[in-house]
Design goal:
Elements lengths: L2 H19 L8 H28 L8 H18 L7 H36 L1
Length: 127
Amino acid sequence: MTRPLLWTRLQARWALVIGLLLGLLNPLDPGVFQSVFGAILTLLIALEFNHTLQYVVKREQSIIQTKVVLLIALLAVARKFIVLDLRDVDSGQLLALAVITLALGLAYWLMRERDDRFVDASLKRAE
């Protein structure tokens, strides 16, 4: 694991533990929940992106898998929906996020369907 990711992980844990122990963070407050969960998802996105790039650096794969990038993008959009404050957002932003989510989901579904057809065709050839 790289140093920045390790540092971010330790910093997030430290802030969460100190905040809960000192009573600064109320886990039942929606704003606190959104910020803590947003930090956790940000860390998850960074870890997944780092894991994907390590395959390329180690030359185990020559290209970055498109499906993995789509999944990381879907995670980022899901994080945005979770940390979004509905009082401060207008309908245009919600519509844009919905369209982005739909487009990423459709692209991932099409990629999966293509891969499934490829596997089925190779199994038929093997028989």
